[in-house]
């Protein structure tokens, strides 16, 4: 833990929140799971970029273990918000962009059924 006592915990949670905000804001321009550069990702259609951002957030929370009941509630809220509908959205994108190699490469790592 960073620091001791209440002041240390406050600084810890502020630092954690800032890190989470920074990581979340970086999602649209970096997609290491897809092996794409920032320029390649930026060149994708907007609906594909939006899907990638949402599904990456979904996958993040799918892999997170709750540490307490409050965190479990937050994880479940985010799972519903970010994951619901992504199976159908992925299927539509794969169908719509079936001949677009860049899009198909970007979508390839995503599981078809997670809901």
Plain-language structure description:
With about 120 residues, the protein is mainly α. It has a domain at about 30-105. It contains 6 helices and no strands. Helix 3 (about 45-60) runs antiparallel to helix 4 (about 70-85) and helix 3 (about 45-60) runs antiparallel to helix 5 (about 85-95). The longest helix is centred in the N-terminal third of the chain and has 22 residues, at about 5-25. The chain is elongated. The model is unreliable at about 1-5 and about 10-35 (pLDDT under 50).
Radius of gyration: 17 Å
Helix proportion: 55-70%
Residue-averaged pLDDT, rounded? Answer: 80
* Strand content bin: under 5%
Largest sheet: none
Low-confidence stretches: 1-5, 12-33
Q: Which oligomeric state applies?
A: single chain
What's the helix and strand layout?
Elements: H1 5-26, H2 38-42, H3 46-62, H4 69-83, H5 86-96, H6 101-107
Concise account of the structure shown:
The longest helix has 22 residues, at 5-26. By secondary structure, this protein is an all-alpha fold.
Keywords:
115 residues, mainly alpha, 6 helices, disordered N terminus
């Amino acid at each position: 833990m960073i620091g001791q006592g209440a002041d240390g915990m406050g600084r810890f949670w502020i630092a954690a929140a800032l890190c989470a905000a920074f990581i979340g804001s970086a999602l649209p321009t970096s997609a290491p799971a897809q092996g794409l550069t920032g320029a390649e990702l930026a060149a994708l259609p907007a609906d594909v970029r939006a899907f990638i951002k949402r599904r990456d957030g979904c996958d993040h929370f799918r892999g997170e273990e709750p540490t307490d009941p409050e965190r479990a509630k937050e994880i479940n809220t985010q799972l519903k918000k970010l994951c619901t509908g992504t199976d159908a959205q992925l299927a539509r994108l794969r169908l719509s962009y079936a001949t677009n190699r860049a899009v198909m490469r970007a979508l390839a790592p995503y599981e078809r059924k997670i809901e």
